[in-house]
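TL;DR need structure tokens for one chain.
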Amino acid sequence: MTDILSLQERVQNSIKLGESHFREFKTAYEGKPENKRPRLVTHICREC
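>> reply
TL;DR here they are.
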């Protein structure tokens, strides 16, 4: 058996661990609660 985690397993582990000093989740939507729309990936990446 290999010790390498698949991308899906890594994402699931990150979600389970939650946010920390090193990990922060960003929303993929913007706007007022009643009018949410998807954000452009380039805008999300600029904040990282």
